[in-house]
Amino acid sequence: MTKLGNSATKKHRSNKGWMQEHVNDHYVQKANAEGWRSRAVFKLSEIDEKDKLLKPGMTVVDLGAAPGSWCQYVSKHVQPGGRVIALDLLEMDPIRGVDFIQGDFREDKVLLELEKLLAGRPVDLVLSDMAPNISGIASADQARAVHLAELALEFSALHLKIGGDLLIKVFQGSGFTELRDAVRPLFQSIQMRKPAASRDRSPEVFLLARNKRQET
Question: pTM (2 decimals)?
Answer without folding.
Answer: 0.88
